[in-house]
């Protein structure tokens, strides 16, 4: 087994702007993906990140993001990449009704992360993500909210990840292969390995 070498920080940056209008509430997501190098190679495989919001029973209530981690150029274990601005727009009336009903999942959270590796390239990533830090910011009814969630992972270098979906969290260190099926709103998300 090759021991991982601490390597890089990939930034996901989303622009700031006014967060509330009469019809929409804008949520801004930023974060960091820390990676460990396994064998020092990069990849052109598509890597997508989704944020999952869970209710108290562990059911997936929201799935936000569709953030392409290599949208602008291929990523490798030795790079810092800045991504194009992106925001999530929510219907203000739906948010208000959700809040009035007392739900705690009206806005995107990063309770659990889902990563999709598309192995369309000649080789799969020879680095693995080991730590995601996700920051969610929004303003609602004059109050600014700012949440940061850490998702460290336990995953040994195996020379890369196979094509498919992976669940990160909700427990710290949790990393599960989900195969080819994308999680959907309404799914129960397990919190044990």
Q: Could you characterize what this model shows?
A:
This protein is mainly β and 193 residues long. It has one domain (24-188): Lipoxygenase-1. It is built from one helix and ten strands. The strands form two sheets. Strands 1, 2, 5, 7 and 8 form a five-stranded antiparallel beta sheet that branches. A five-stranded antiparallel beta sheet has the order 4-3-6-9-10, with no helix packed on it. A hairpin with a 2-residue loop joins β7 (127-140) and β8 (143-152). The longest helix is centred in the middle third of the chain and has 9 residues, at 92-100. It is globular and about 45 Å long. The two termini are 22 Å apart. Residues 1-17 form the signal peptide. Keywords: Signal.
CA-CA gap between termini: 22 Å
Total discrete domains: 1
**What's the CATH C level?**
Mainly Beta
Proportion of β residues?
Answer: 35-45%
**Structure classification:** mainly beta
> Low-confidence spans: pLDDT under 50, at least 5 residues?
1-20, 77-83, 121-125
Please, how many helices?
Answer: 1
User: Any idea of the CATH topology?
Assistant: Lipoxygenase-1
H/E topology pattern: EEEEEHEEEEE
> Gyration radius, to the nearest Å?
17 Å
Q: What overall form do the CA principal axes indicate?
A: globular
- Please name the fourth-level CATH homologous superfamily: PLAT/LH2 domain
Task: Please state the average pLDDT score.
Answer: 73
Q: What's the number of extended β-strand segments?
A: 10
Proportion of helical residues: under 10%
Just name the CATH architecture: Sandwich
Largest sheet data: 5 strands, antiparallel
Protein name: Lipase domain-containing protein
Signal peptide: 1-17
Keywords: Signal
Organism: Steinernema glaseri
């Amino acid at each position: 087994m090759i021991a991982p070498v601490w390597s890089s920080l990939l930034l996901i940056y989303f622009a700031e702007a006014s967060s509330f209008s009469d019809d929409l509430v804008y949520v801004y997501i930023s974060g960091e993906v820390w990676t460990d190098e396994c064998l020092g190679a990069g990849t052109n495989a598509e890597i997508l990140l989704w944020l999952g919001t869970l209710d108290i029973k562990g059911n997936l209530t929201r799935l936000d993001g569709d953030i392409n981690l290599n949208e602008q150029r291929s990523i490798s274990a030795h790079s810092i990449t800045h991504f194009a601005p992106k925001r999530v727009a929510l219907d203000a009336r739906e948010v208000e009704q959700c809040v009035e009903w007392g739900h705690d999942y009206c806005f995107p959270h990063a309770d659990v992360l889902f990563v999709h590796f598309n192995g369309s390239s000649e080789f799969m990533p020879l680095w693995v993500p080991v730590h995601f830090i996700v920051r969610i910011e929004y303003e609602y009814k004059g109050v600014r909210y700012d949440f940061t969630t850490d998702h460290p992972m336990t995953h040994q270098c195996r020379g890369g990840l196979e094509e498919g979906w992976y669940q990160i969290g909700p427990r710290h260190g949790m990393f599960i292969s989900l195969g080819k099926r994308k999680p959907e709103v309404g799914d129960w998300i397990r919190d044990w390995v």
